[in-house]
Structure to design on (844 residues):
């Protein structure tokens, strides 16, 4: 065991462990979703019909593309091309903003129709639909917070790449930011079918 | 391995070393794992004595004719006592004080792998503590829900639930990051030759605990967030009028909070596993079984949470499954107890204060564990749930177990951390007073509980008067023992006799460093060629 | 190219598959997305959720293996981590299920 190699690989091990904790954080919400879906299958179906499948699919494509761009950013850095890497990071941040824009559009449309927690319209619907929307806002909301944090982290990484603080010999921070971003993508990969596609 | 004498010209104790920042800033901005351990020690023991104070007030309230609390105040008192003890003391104490101070040294390293993250966890800890304290005085006042924050009451009560549960969320983050630091450090920074099965068992304790911190704590995080969202926005996941199920709150809460008790006990058991061989002058019996039992307790212990919910509306089928799993988890703990006793058998016993605390740990934890079997069985639970029997059980395992394990660690590692020795006869006296008071305080609770005395009640029926009186007097004796123990140790920090590098004759790596260690720990990273408890290959220094 | 044989460079991630492979993986992910949306349109009733979650699992595996380099990872603790997390969540959800479905 080379002590120095071990110490430097530590950043990656630590990041993966952090990713594990994030998966379990969302896992608690998936637990609630599974129990309530089990008990209210028809209501969850009805709630899902209210969501815009086109926008959901668009957001899925945006996030998948952002995963591609951040992976390319790291590959570009490894190839010794920091400017190209920075461009890919910019592309990732742009995708993230795109995602949040679509999300904001979706949410405000729902608010307009009175489909938000404690709204009179929502309360007049079935209990299962109340649960569906409660979980919808909680889960996509927490996900959106993670997207926002990701924008912050990637912006910092962009500056560091441009300043030369992140180099092919010392890419740990960019690699770890990429891992975080892929996690954000994976969570949405599961949120999308569970809310937009269930029949 | 010859004693490593400190180089007098260059050696400076870690607490006297003058680095980049002067004075107090050298502590507040410290990244040295030993200084961070001391930061945690001072803050945690402060919170401990605050919570002890609240407990004393509660016991005064339970003396006949001395009802000093209104019912609302009593609810706030036991809630605060629980929140401080559980989240600010018992969960963090051994990993953040002794894990931080000693884990790097025990594996032959120089620091934790993420020193700045380490300091950040302490700031998160203090932030969570401050938020919890602030919530007492603002937004409706001190929380009165019990530390368990059960819905629907926690959603309806007008006190400051959101701030208190958000404080718990922040404390959870601190715990998670500590866990990540410990697992990564253990994997990446072991000295050459230190395979997993040459590590001291205290390291196995910290390591197994860290996995539970990583895998279970996020669930309490999301649960506390959900309570905040329910109160602020009414999302409805726990509200029956919107289709929510309050029992799912209990599931989520206990999915973390049961493994949390293993976060409490596993590091303490690890320290005890280090202590028994040293004071028996004999290698630990069944090293691998103890190591694996730590992993087994961490894993199986994460499957039993439903035993808190037998009478809450959970199905009988689930109850049977959880009860079966609960009985299973007793097995690895019993293996540890057997192995510690077998370590003493035919050993050369040195009766020193750490050993006394370790022995009483085994005794008290066993009582606590056995009473857990009563509670884990479905039918007796119907009678015993929410009675003083439960209060007695968890104080025996948490205080008698983890608490005495913490005190054992203090008395074992004090000379290494401070470079001084405490007054041993005085510590034996304080131990005895503490031990007698503890049993006088908590044992009557089993009897009271069996006879039907409910927990979390500010008052009681006349038939329980005598037992409450005995318990309260016992509590005062116990607290006297605590105060004496603390006074003895604090005095020794300033005026204790100088301690040698290895006062107990231990064979683990910390005893090869000077007492106290310098800022860099090892001058040269050691190469490990023997196990942690092989005394025949070690020269003993007294 | 047998990238699993590439020696892990000290301190960096395991050597990844390169940009061309990333684009291929992205293409597969888009395709799978199209599949899952299409399948949702059929009236599959009970097995719909299994199919959709199954496709989600395949997409996540592609992201984990190729974008996050799990396929090329040498460290055991990282390789075992996702199975451990899945097992943990399965236990939490499964045992809670055992209550909810039998009440």
């Amino acid at each position: 065991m080379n002590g120095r190699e071990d110490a430097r690989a530590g950043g990656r091990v630590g990041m993966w462990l952090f990713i594990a904790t994030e998966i379990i954080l969302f896992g608690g919400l998936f637990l609630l979703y599974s129990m309530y879906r089990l008990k209210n299958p028809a209501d969850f179906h009805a709630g899902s019909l209210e969501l815009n499948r086109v926008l959901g699919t668009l957001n899925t494509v945006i996030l998948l593309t952002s995963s591609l761009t951040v992976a390319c950013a790291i590959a570009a850095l490894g190839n010794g091309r920091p400017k190209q890497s920075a461009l890919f990071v910019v592309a990732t941040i742009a995708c993230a903003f795109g995602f949040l824009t679509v999300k904001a559009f979706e949410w405000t449309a729902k608010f307009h129709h009175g489909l938000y927690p404690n709204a009179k319209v929502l309360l007049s619907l079935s209990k299962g639909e109340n649960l569906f929307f409660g979980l919808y806002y909680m889960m996509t909301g927490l996900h959106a917070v993670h997207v926002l944090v990701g924008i912050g982290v990637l912006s910092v990484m962009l500056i560091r790449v441009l300043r030369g603080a992140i180099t092919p010999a010392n890419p740990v921070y960019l690699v770890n930011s990429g891992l975080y971003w892929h996690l954000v993508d994976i969570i949405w990969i599961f949120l999308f079918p569970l809310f937009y596609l269930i029949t | 391995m010859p004693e490593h004498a400190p180089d007098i010209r260059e050696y400076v104790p870690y607490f006297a070393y003058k680095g980049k920042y002067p004075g107090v800033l050298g502590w507040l901005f410290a990244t040295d794992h030993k200084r961070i351990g001391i930061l945690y020690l001072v803050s945690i023991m402060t919170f401990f004595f605050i919570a002890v104070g609240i407990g004393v007030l509660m016991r005064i309230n339970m003396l006949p004719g001395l009802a000093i609390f209104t019912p609302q105040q009593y609810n706030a008192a036991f809630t605060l006592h629980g929140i401080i003890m559980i989240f600010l003391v018992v969960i963090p104490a051994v990993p953040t004080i002794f894990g931080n101070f000693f884990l790097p040294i025990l594996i032959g390293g120089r620091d934790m792998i993420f020193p700045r993250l380490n300091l950040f966890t302490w700031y998160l800890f203090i932030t969570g503590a401050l938020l919890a304290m602030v919530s007492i005085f603002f937004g409706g006042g001190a929380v009165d829900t019990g530390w368990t924050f059960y819905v629907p009451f926690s959603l309806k009560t007008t006190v400051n639930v959101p701030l208190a549960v958000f404080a718990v969320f922040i404390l959870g983050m601190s715990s998670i990051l500590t866990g990540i630091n410990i697992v990564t450090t253990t994997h990446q920074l072991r000295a050459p030759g230190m395979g997993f099965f040459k590590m001291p068992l205290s390291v196995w304790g910290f390591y197994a605990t860290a996995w539970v911190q990583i895998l279970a704590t996020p669930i309490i995080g999301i649960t506390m967030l959900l309570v905040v969202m329910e109160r602020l926005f009414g999302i409805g996941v726990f509200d029956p009028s919107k289709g929510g199920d309050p029992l799912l709150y209990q599931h989520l809460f206990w999915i973390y909070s049961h493994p949390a008790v293993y976060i409490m006990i596993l590091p303490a058991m690890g320290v005890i596993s280090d202590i028994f061989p040293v004071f028996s002058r004999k290698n630990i019996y069944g090293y691998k079984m103890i190591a694996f039992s730590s992993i087994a307790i961490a894993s199986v212990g994460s499957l039993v949470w439903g035993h808190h919910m037998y009478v809450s509306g959970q199905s009988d089928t689930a109850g049977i499954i959880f009860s079966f799993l609960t009985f299973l988890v007793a097995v690895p703990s019993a293996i540890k107890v057997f192995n510690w006793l077998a370590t003493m058998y035919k050993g050369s016993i040195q009766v020193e204060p750490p050993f006394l605390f370790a022995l009483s740990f085994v005794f008290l934890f066993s009582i606590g564990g056995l009473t857990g079997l009563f509670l884990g069985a479905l039918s007796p639970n119907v009678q015993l749930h929410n009675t003083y029997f439960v209060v007695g059980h968890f104080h025996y395992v948490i205080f008698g177990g983890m608490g005495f394990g913490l005190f054992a660690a203090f008395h074992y590692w004090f000379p290494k951390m401070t470079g001084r020795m405490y007054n041993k006869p005085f510590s034996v006296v304080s131990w005895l007073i503490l031990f007698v008071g503890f049993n006088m305080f908590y044992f009557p609770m089993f009897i009271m509980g069996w006879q039907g005395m409910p927990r979390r009640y500010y008052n009681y029926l006349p038939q329980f008067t005598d037992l409450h009186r005995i318990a309260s007097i016992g509590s005062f004796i116990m607290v006297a023992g605590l105060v004496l123990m603390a006074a003895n140790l604090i005095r020794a920090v300033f005026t204790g006799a100088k301690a040698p590098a290895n006062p107990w004759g231990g064979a683990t790596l910390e005893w090869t460093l000077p007492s106290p260690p310098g800022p860099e720990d090892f001058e040269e990273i050691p190469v490990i060629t023997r196990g942690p408890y092989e005394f025949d290959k070690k020269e003993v220094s007294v | 190219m047998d990238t699993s044989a590439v020696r892990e460079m000290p301190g960096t991630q395991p050597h990844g598959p390169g940009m061309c492979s990333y684009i291929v993986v992205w293409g597969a992910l888009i395709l799978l997305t199209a599949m899952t949306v299409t399948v949702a349109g059929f009236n599959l009733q009970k097995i719909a959720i299994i199919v959709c979650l199954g496709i989600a699992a395949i997409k996540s595996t592609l992201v984990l293996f190729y974008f996050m380099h799990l396929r090329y990872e040498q460290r055991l603790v990282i390789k075992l981590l996702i199975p451990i997390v899945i097992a943990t969540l399965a236990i939490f959800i499964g045992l809670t299920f055992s209550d909810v479905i039998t009440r």
